[in-house]
Amino acid sequence: xxxxxxxxxxxxxxxxxxxxxxxxxxxxxxxxxxxxxxxxxxxxxxxxxxxxxxxxxxxxxxxxxxxxxxxxxxxxxxxxxxxxxxxxxxxxxxxxxxxxxxxxxxxxxxxxxxxxxxxxxxxxxxxxxxxxxxxxxxxxxxxxxxxxxxxxxxxxxxxxxxxxxxxxxxxxxxxxxxxxxxxxxxxxxxxxxxxxxxxxxxxxxxxxxxxxxxxxxxxxxxxxxxxxxxxxxxxxxxxxxxxxxxxxxxxxxxxxxxxxxxxxxxxxxxxxxxxxxxxxxxxxxxxxxxxxxxxxxxxxxxxxxxxxxxxxxxxxxxxxxxxxxxxxxxxxxxxxxxxxxxxxxxxxxxxxxxxxxxxxxxxxxx
Length: 366
Description:
Blueprint: E1 2-8, E2 17-23, E3 30-39, H1 42-48, E4 65-72, E5 84-87, E6 90-92, H2 98-101, E7 115-116, E8 147-151, E9 156-157, H3 164-167, H4 173-183, E10 191-195, H5 199-210, E11 214-219, H6 222-230, E12 234-237, H7 241-245, E13 251-256, E14 271-279, H8 291-295, E15 300-303, H9 309-322, E16 328-332, H10 336-345, E17 351-355, H11 357-365
Parallel strand pairs: 10-11, 10-13, 11-12, 13-14, 14-15, 16-17
Antiparallel strand pairs: 1-2, 3-4, 3-8, 3-17, 4-5, 5-9, 6-7
Helix pairs in contact: 4-5, 4-9
C-alpha cells in the first residue's frame, strides 16, 4: 500500500476536506499514475451531494485526470513510466458482456455495470440484492488526489500538442459530447443545436464546428450569447419563442447539455424529419414530451452516457489534430469548495481544472 492524500466529503452536507488514505499497489496489468491535473465536473457536485441517491462516503471525486505513469504493475506494457496519460469516468468493466465485447464499456451489462473512477461500483451492493461485486471494491477514490492506480486498458494516451491541464476536461466533457455527435453521424454541412453553454456545451460547439457543422447555441443568459459568438456559433435565448418558431424543421441534430431537469418541448419542433435530440446533461426524469411532435416527423429523442475508451482516445486525438481545447481556469485544490459554488451559479467559463501540485505541497507541509 502507498500513502496518498486527497480531498473528500464525508456527508452530503459537508465540504471537501483533506483526507489521507492508502492506494493499493499496482496489480497485474495496472499502472500507478501521479496526478498532475483534474477537472471539476458538475457530476462531481451531484455525487458529493448525493443528488443521485447512490453516493458512497467518503466520496473523493475526480474523473477528468491527467498525469504521468509512475509505476507499472506486473505484465503492464501499454504505457511506460513517464508517459503523459489520462483517466476518465471508468477504470474497469466486466469485459465479457455484449457491450464490452463490442467496445462500448460505458454501457457494460455486467452485475455492477462499469467501475467508476470514484464512488465505487455504479450499482452499490446494498441496491443490487443478489448481485455480486465483481470488482472486489465497495468504494473507489478519484482524481482529487496525489495518485491513482488504474487498469492499463482504461488509461488513455494524451497526444503531443495538447496542454495537459486543458486536456483533462476532454476525458469527460469532451467524450460525452463527442460520442453522440459521432454516433448520430453529424457531418459537414449539418445544422446542429446545442442546448446549454457550460462545460459540456462549449465543447460540443467546438467539436461540431470542427466537424464542419453550422452550430446554434441555446442559452438562458445574455452573457452566454456573447460567449457563443466568441465560439463562432449563433446564439439564441431559448425563451425567445418567436426566434424558435422561425427555426422549426431546420436542425439535423440537437444536443442537450443542461445538467438538471428541463423541458425539451420547445426544441423538438426544431428538428427536421429523422432528426435526433439527444440528452447528455441530465440523468433525472425530464418533463413529458408531446409525442405528436415526435411521431409526425419520425424524430428521435435519445440519451447518451459519456463514451467508450475507444471514443475517448478518438476525441483526444481529434482535439490535438484540430487545435481544440476547453476553456479552463486552473485553481489550487484549496479553492475547490468555492469552485463548486461557482459551478452551481454558472460563474465559470467554462471548466475549472485543479493543479495537483497544490495538493502535493499540502502533503509535504503536513
